Amino acid sequence: MERAEAEVEVAADGGHTPHSAPSTAPSARVSIWESVRACGVWGKEVDKAELQRQVVMPLYARRAVAAAVAAKDEAAGVAAAAAAKGEEVEGDEVAVVTPIVVFVNSKSGGRHGPELKVRLHELISKEQDIRGKLRIVVAGGDGTVGWVLGCLQDLYRLKREPVPPTGIIPLGTGNDLARSFGWGGSFPFGWRSAVKRSLSKAGTAPIVHLDSWQAVITMPEGEIEELPHALKKVEPTDRLEFSKENGSELPEKASCYKGVFYNYLSIGMDAQVAYGFHHLRDEKPYLAQGPVANKLIYAGYSCTQGWFCTPCTASPQLRGLRNILRLYIKRVNCSEWEQIQMPSSVRSLVVLNLYNYGSGRHPWGNLKPDYLEKRGFVEAHSDDGLIEIFGLKEGWHASLVMAELIKAKHIAQAAAIKFEMRGGEWDRAYVQMDGEPWKQPLIQDQSTIVEINKVPYHSLMINGEQ
Q1: Strand 100-104 relative to strand 166-170: parallel, antiparallel, unpaired?
Q2: Where is this region: Disordered (predicted)?
Q3: Which of 51, 232, 360, 447 has the largest count of CB atoms under 10 Å?
């Protein structure tokens, strides 16, 4: 993911108490009216002067940010803030409502970032008071939002609370995080007015919770080529107990990687298609001129990877993930691992945290109470401490699921997950996490373990669905 460019800004009353997460059971179809509204033609008009009056940043904060970024050192920012405070004249400060910092990824989706940044400069004034009232707005796709949320999680670990909540201006291709919290699924046509409304809404809208999940990959000693931004190499952790209980054979020397995801992690054919699409887009960036073009390329590429038609030369028993993967889960309030049988037909396994997936589709579905009770499931929410696991069989099945004509293959609902993978006749598996794919090396007689656990604190999101 490209580094997000930071801009400082905007407004509303601080001190909101987080509300429950927005409902995860809206209509599966997006109405024509909602699509028209997203174009930015209709909506409450926001006065530019009033917006600028509310959005102010003090001189000391501006100087501190500039100095800290330039020196890449927090101490430089503290010193600059202290010096600037001595220059301020009493009575110059303006009462602030809610300051907002806007991160703009200029390369997301249709690459509207530079234009948006100019517009933000027009709308945002020069002064602000920060701490305690701060809110974040991310202008980018799901990857950019995830990067910012990951940075904010460091504040929890460093015990530097309060941690500001995050709103979104959707610039990416899928924008499932933006859809899930009421910010829309695309960059609107009437974007100049829409940006004003987004900034105003970011300052006044309620705050809700979002679960995040940490994936830990322990593999035979080696490297993951083309390591995605979502993963970082760390010191190996002890997996001996799990190995003994489940008959796994882990090597004496192992490599370990960690990453956090907010939307989904998947293994199998869909990740392979995503991997090929990302490489094609990097090699021929002129093809990727916007979300629509990206989706057309993605669909076309999936037809060439055996997702819709497996070559006759491929051995049938090698098509399903069950040949390389064993699945274990922990249920709510349970400390024991339970093995879940993998359906033989599943070629893609998806672990989903949000209701939205694949550009606003709902593969888990809005399940009826009788079915939930029969399967031992509960209604899915993005802050319930549970994660949903479903499977896709092949391209035709996936297409019908994404068209919401049928539901995905429901496999489990869990509070923690472990995958054990062995190569057999496979020397690699394809994995993706929040849209960042990679090739995972596999060895025939040694296990690779992927463990997924909930991060012990929530991310705070601004609920734009008003």
Answers
A1: unpaired
A2: 1-28
A3: 447
**Domain residue limits at 224:** 212-310+318-456
C-alpha gyration radius of the chain: 23
pLDDT in tens, 250-287: 667 889 999 999 999 999 888 888 888 777 766 766 66
Alpha carbon distance 395, 298 (integer Å) = 12
Last residue of a domain, one of 205, 236, 271: 205
Contact between residue 168 and residue 198 where contact means Cβ atoms under 8 Å apart: no
Do residues 198 and 222 both lie within one domain?
no
What residues contact residue 118 under an 8 Å CB cut-off, 6+ apart? none
Q: Are 350 and 390 in contact (CB under 8 A)?
A: yes
- In which residue are the tokens 């672990």 written? 351
Contact 360, 182 (CB under 8 A): no
User: Do 442 and 424 share a domain, yes or no?
Assistant: yes
Q: Are 174 and 430 in contact (CB under 8 A)?
A: no
Query: Three-state DSSP class for 353?
Result: coil
What is the per-residue pLDDT across 395-451, written as a single tens digit (0 to 9) for each? 778 888 888 888 889 999 999 999 999 876 778 889 999 888 899 998 878 889 999
The closest alpha carbon to 412, from 323, 327, 319, belongs to 327
CB neighbours of residue 13 within 10 Å: 11
Give the 3-state secondary structure of residue 199: helix
- As given in the structure block, the two tokens for residue 106 are 């200029």
Give the bridge partners for 429, in sequence order. 440
Give the end of a domain, one of 148, 181, 205. 205
Which residue is listed with tokens 């006065």? 47
Q: Which amino acid is at 264?
A: Y
| Look-up of token digits 């073009």 | 293
Same domain, 276 and 184: no
Helix (H, G, I), strand (E, B) or coil at 299: helix
Between vectors from CA 155 to CA 150 and to CA 159, what angle results, nearest 5°? 145
CATH of the domain at 242: 2.60.200
What is the token pair recorded at 243? 């190995």
**Total structural domains within the chain:** 2
